[in-house]
Target: Wall-associated receptor kinase 2-like
Amino acid sequence: MGFGGLFEELAVFAVMVTIMATSVAAQPKPGCQSHCGNISIPYPFGTRNGCYISSDFFINCDTSFNPPKAFLSDSVLEVLNISLDDGSLRIRYDSSIGYNCYNSSGRTSDPNIGFLIKIFPVSHTRNKFTAIGCDTIAYIDGLSAADSSHRNFKEKNFSTGCLTFCGDEGDVINGSCSGIGCCQTAIPKGLGAYYFRFHSSRNHSTVLTFNPCSYGFLVENGTYTFSPSDLSNTNFSKRKYPLILDWTIGNQNCKQAKMDPKDYACKQNSACINPESGPGYLCKCNDGFQGNPYLSNGCQDIDECETLKPCNKFGTCHNTPGSYNCSCPHGFKGDGRKNGTGCHRTFKPRNSKRFRIVAVALDVGLSLGILFLIVGVWWLYKILQRRKYIKLKQKLFERNGGLLFQRKMSSNEGGLDKAKLFSSKELEIATDKYNENRILCCGGQGMVYKGMLFDGRIVAVKKPKTVNEGYLEQFINEIFILSQIDHRNIVKLLGCCLETEVPLLVYEFIPNGTLSHLIHDQNEEYPRSWDIRLRIAAEVANAISYLHSSASIPIYHRDIKSSNILLDEKFRAKVSDFGTSRSVGIDQTHLTTKVLGTFGYLDPEYFQSSHFTEKSDVYSFRVVIVELLTGKEAILTFGSQEKRGLVSYFMSSMEENHWLDIVDVEIGKDGQKDEVVAVAELAKRCLNLDGRYRPTMKEVAMELERFRTRQGDCIPIDHPKQAEVVVRKSAERWDFNSFSTEHSTNCSITSTSESESGGLPLMLEST
Model:
């Protein structure tokens, strides 16, 4: 029998075993109801006392429906399927969709709606939080399943969410749930009770005609497909979608449960499994057995001899508990298996010296022939693999814009001769094959690794997760932009690698971390004096002013924040992360893009108009100045849960004339009150909602440099009172919680939107 026939037989056997395992595993406890309508009820679940392992596994079979419907315990959760293989429970229930509606007179429904699912947690791997709307910021707050039974479920233990926008119905794409009309995000692990909250930046005033409501709900992966008609469907909240729960036995792990044999749920011929979903355990039949592992004698031996027929035509199959073996008849040797050596006849050679010599010669010749054949095949394989590898690198090089790079390098366009083309092998050696111990930071689009080149230089290598082939020319143009920048306070680009799956960028290594670490980390070795802070602010301002005014092509950075400002060995500032930067024509006044940036630093005028100007960079830089003044983060936490923007906090303190109370105590030790006041007033002007009232970056840089040298008048020029009122309103409307309060301590990911025009979304956003 050929390999094709063997694989076909194995496939048939696998299907037969799956069908048999499913029918046996669905067994209830003896004498108990096996089905409720079309739903199988396997033990440990049951429909009456004595048929389930504990009250958590009680199934209420409601016969008032035709056919009858199964409900979990005394709840309204309709059971659609029970799986013993992966410990999942598929449910559906009424009123599972939260909503928040508006009409021309304002909000018409409560934007805060809660749901409680007792006993079992919501699966964080098989469900998604989904929000629908054109002016919607939706959150889900909740408790773990263990807390939901004895605490007020409105007390947050988890929080996550997403936002959706769309200008008009033409922006919405059928089936797409990526932020335009519809968004989806993962949910926290162990969720047992949850609470929907909605916000609207414009109270739906511009989308009421086709989107009067915002909706939020949890749904099983792949069961909801977005349709633009859902935005105008006022009955959408009445829909019901399936949800997956994770169930386990008890609250002990396998090791703890085995210490109490009386209550241990895994029976004969089964194994205990610790699931990833949380506490408790599951049971599974051992290999070679099938059935219900929670019932005594529920795991039965599979007779492989009958189902698989694995032995050669001369071999005899012997079934054993959990396995089988094959034997050959007398006069034959081998293992007797179809996919093994099979059974072949034995013979005794004639007892002659000549025959033995010939036999040995044949054996030696055959062995040498096989050896040479193996060596030849291996050598040919290596040659083919090397050719394949070379072709792959060339293909990747061309796909990643290598030909365009070489053409522009040969013509020396944009000073590209300053950028080097690194080989993939060179960067693999430099980063020790991208070892986890070399990771400096990670962002939503990739990793940054520390490496050492052959010449001993320490570098930072940015490796994106994915690449969009439609932006390869913009990627090369981005390299051109960075190659033109020659400023001591901007991180220097050394080169790139284009022969990998995703293009890599190589930068100079900056050793002392970020300005965010300097301001917020409690490290006594960091210098935090006022002179140091003022010098860093002036250096950053000079760098951004250079981008705006002195570069050959004006550049908007578009993501200025303290975590994107690096510090070298002498704590001099280096502006980094140009992944979202854009070059503009000299006669251009703004870029029209979809909203992109980091909350807490984002210009409100840009958020409302989608017009990014050089004054938008000024606004973000002033947030950094306020961080330097106060030592506080851009998003503040008050009490246990309340969050507020630093800009709002700073502006309200300025208006109430007690802002010196929030100045960092480290600054107060230096006795530079006049300079601090002057810088604060400058920050206030730059945080104006109306960009026309903000100074340019060049003016800011000159004023900061004057403060540093203690020359001239340190008091900024007053501006109209109307502008100050606008600033206060701007700060208040940006005072809301961050999208997710549950994140990694090593790497945080900033949620952004793709730019609509220009630029390259391939670069990492280091945070």
